[in-house]
Amino acid sequence: MSVAEALVVEDEGAALFRAIRAELLDEYRQDHDWPWIIGYSGGKDSTLVTHLVIEMLLSIPPSQRSRPVHIVANDTLVESPLVVQHIVESMEEIGNAANAFGLPIVTKITRPSPDQSFWVNLIGRGYPSPNRSFRWCTDRMKILPTSRYIKSQADEAGQVVLLLGVRRSESATRAASVGRYDNGERLNKHNDLVGCMVFRPIVELHTDDVWEFLALNEPPWGGSHLKLIGLYRSASGGECPVVTSKDDAPSCGTTSSRFGCWTCTVVEKDRSLEGFVESGYSEFTPLLDFRDWLVSIRNEKERRQARRRDGRITITNGGTFVPGPFTLQTRAEILEKLRRLEHATGQSLITEEEIDLIHQIWSGEIADHGKAKTFSVREIVKDRKHAT
Ligand code: SF4
User: Fold this and answer.
1) Structural domains of the chain in order of their starting residue, each with its CATH number
2) What is the pLDDT of residues 18-34, one digit of tens each?
3) Which of 12, 42, 134, 375 could anchor a disulfide with 87, C-beta 3.0 to 4.6 Å?
């Protein structure tokens, strides 16, 4: 019985989970050797998928565990501190259990290349803090690192199956993006990644089904899901989903993605950090203040250069002048404040490699400064696309 049929016949959680387990097993036993890749965000949905897959692997004889399963998480390098800690710890627990049980599991945490990190773009290149119309971060910090890994596996194996913990009932946005794949097939081609098929085993589950399962079942890698449940309680909300395409990206940096980057200036208020602070993690208050400060300085005219990084001046079709990146003074001020924040909180918030790259970019800009650039009228950009 398919998951959809189980829904029609009886609206019962147990039947649904039975159908999901059967579908996972059936897909794993298909006559090809495409590796599985689980997009793991550390949130409830991808944790459930990981739980069910590991349970399935344990239920079959070792000789039948021929298909490798990669569990891939992404760390933007500016994740909420408690969330990244949870991801790292749970991945380690899963990896240890997989070794102990002899399961064909590979755990991998992807990260943006240092040259494309939040701080190198914001402080180095002076990109204004991301907002809804200039959200430069998701692609660089989330989509690219994970996609690179998936592509490398697809190139090696010819094809991969990406298991996503997306659910139709999660949100209206999610329902719309899930709907794109509703063609009656279990596996669907990924919109952007060649050689990648998408499998959504828990798409029909409701939020209550997920929580109930996690509360009642201990993870096969040991411990309990109570830590995760506590994390949600503290953050008082949703999660930042695994993002592997631009279609998934609208849910990144919204009020429904409260496990996002602690630096996120796309959300009006960082609900997850606020939730953690309200739950007693007062050590995050300075981070919250720093993020709010980044939001507040974004549109201060004197903090922005007149020209874009390539020397052009931007005027929209409507005649509005669009300022360029943060001035070098402001970038230096942000870096100094960030270092002071590290000192005050005892947390490492930026790497030495990022600081070196920032200084290299600044040096390059200072060297370029003064080399007069002359643009024709045609070259003066009149493009709404770059309006911030
Ligand atoms: S959570 Fe915010 S800062 Fe992080 S990638 Fe998404 S939109 Fe950008």
Assistant:
1) 35-303+326-368 (3.40.50.620)
2) 999 999 999 999 999 99
3) 42
